[in-house]
Design goal:
Strand order of the largest sheet: 3-2-1-4-5-6-7-8
Bound molecules: uridine-5'-diphosphate-glucuronic acid
Strand content: 5-15%
Largest sheet: 8 strands, mixed
Radius of gyration: 24 Å
Helix content: 40-55%
Structural class: alpha/beta
Length: about 450
């Protein structure tokens, strides 16, 4: 059992802290936001993450929450840094919160500083020099990047593909590796710079795969191929693998955008133009409004048309809307003059999306709509009774931005349905039964 202080009660800090407690360690979680600490002390998780609240409850005995650095660090063998590193206007990572933690480390502290936050390569060297300058030579430094994905973070921590530990001294790497001994996994021990790069390169490669399949999808649309079958066909090649080959309206979330941009910026600052990443980012930017362009092909001008935007979170099982394609799509629809109704089971865009109306149910969002756009692959949307929903729509158009639904079934139900990168009959080819209704409206 080790005593661990975790700095930052965001997604990474809370999940890491709760899971470290679950595997037997004593954990103190420190944050600067009083409301978060109060909520945690009252047994509530300030974020929505499946399994987290249960884990916090189950390990109450081994978890403490505090606003006070000294209290968290007192007696700790490890200081985990889990604070946010957002993008600055230049695309570099903003390390303000990281440096604040370093500044606050109490004098005379011993133990290991473990960097979980995603930082540019070279940060470890700078932190080491700063610790030495602060008289904290007895605090070791280890880079231990996190690979948790929101929505599955607890599972990802407990069953990691690998744990990466980058250290200046082998004995420091061994200590951090030992913390994870209850987890069945591969430990990758390396130097600090390589550990920092592993994290950035992993996210950059994942986004490259998504942008790649999205471009294949766009070409599929022009040549009549089906990207779902193409992804399956290439993914079965064990050298390629099947993950992160789902075409859609683009990748979002708080990590991908900032990490890819931080790596591109890091390369640029070091004198290298990372051409491939520039394209990966641009493809993603262009992918989001394509859903709106598809709608325009079906409906013509969008002014006065009612459009349901289904799903706001950047992916299912989270309430996180940071960098979500839904925000770009909804904002474009509003800009085109459409009457936008949104729905999401947990994410709330009220106050975020000017001119859009948030609805309580899928049925409410699509009632009277000229079209629905699926932006997040929530299971609720796959399970919805589309036959019933269709009856309430003004015209049955569905743009499926996540290829969530079965095109054949949707067309059999009378929808003008279009996915991403899938063969689509000529636009406006609604089944016969729709004709009288359509004529009436003209
Ligand atoms: C991502 C990584 O997957 C984690 O390994 C990493 O630790 C984390 O960033 C981080 O750096 O903190 P996350 O942002 O939670 O995790 O979400 P993902 O599940 O990776 O999805 C990101 C986006 O890509 C979503 O918008 C999703 O819809 C999209 N996506 C994903 C696709 O469009 N196609 C796919 O095939 C997969």
């Amino acid at each position: 059992m080790a005593r661990i202080a975790v700095f930052g009660a965001g997604y990474a800090g809370l999940v890491t802290g709760a899971c470290l407690a679950e595997i037997g360690h004593e954990v103190a979680i420190r944050d600067i936001v009083p409301e978060k600490i109060e909520a945690l002390r009252a047994g509530r998780a300030p974020i929505y993450e499946p399994g987290l609240e249960e884990l916090l409850e189950k390990n109450r005995e081994r978890l403490r929450f505090t606003l006070d650095v000294g209290e968290a660090a007192d007696g700790a063998d490890f200081l985990f840094v889990c604070v946010g590193t957002p993008s600055t206007y230049s695309g570099d990572a903003d390390l303000w919160a990281v440096w604040t933690v370093i500044d606050e480390i109490p004098a005379g502290m011993r133990g290991l500083l473990v960097m979980k936050s995603t930082v540019p390569v070279g940060t470890g060297e700078k932190v080491r020099a700063t610790l030495d300058a602060q008289g904290l030579e007895n605090v070791g430094y280890v880079s231990n990047p996190e690979f948790l994905a929101e929505g599955t973070a607890v599972h990802d921590f407990m069953h990691p593909d690998r744990v990466v530990v980058g250290a200046f001294r082998p004995e420091d790497a061994d200590e951090v590796a030992a913390l994870h001994e209850k987890l069945e996994t591969t430990i990758v021990k390396t130097d600090v710079a390589s550990a920092e790069m592993i994290k950035l390169a992993a996210n950059a490669f994942l986004t490259t795969r998504i942008s790649f399949i999205n471009e294949i999808a766009n070409v599929c649309e022009l040549v009549g191929a089906d990207v779902v079958d193409v992804a399956k066909g290439i993914g079965l090649d064990h050298r390629l693998g099947s993950h992160f080959l789902r075409a859609g309206v683009g990748w979002g979330g708080s990590c991908f955008g900032k990490d890819v941009s931080a790596l591109k910026q890091l390369a640029g600052n070091s004198g290298y133009h990372f051409q491939l990443l520039a394209a990966v980012i641009e493809v993603n930017e262009l992918q989001k409004p394509r859903a709106v362009a598809k709608l325009q092909k079906h409906l013509g001008k969008l002014r006065g048309k009612r459009v349901a935007v289904l799903g706001l979170a950047f992916k299912p099982h989270t309430d996180d809307m940071r960098e979500s394609p839904s925000l770009v799509i909804a904002a474009r629809l509003v800009a085109e003059g459409a009457e936008v109704r949104t729905w999401d089971p947990v994410a709330d865009a009220r106050g975020l999306l000017q001119g859009a109306q948030q609805c309580e149910s899928i049925a409410e969002a699509v009632a009277g709509a000229d079209a629905a756009v699926i932006v997040t692959d929530w299971p609720e949307l796959a399970e919805a009774d589309w036959a019933e929903l269709r009856k309430t729509m003004r015209s049955p158009h569905v743009i499926d931005g996540r290829n969530l639904l079965d095109p054949e079934k949707m067309r059999a139900l009378g929808f003008a349905y279009e996915g991403i990168g899938r063969p689509t009959p000529p636009f406006g080819a609604l089944p016969e039964t729709e004709e009288p209704e359509r004529k009436l409206r003209q």
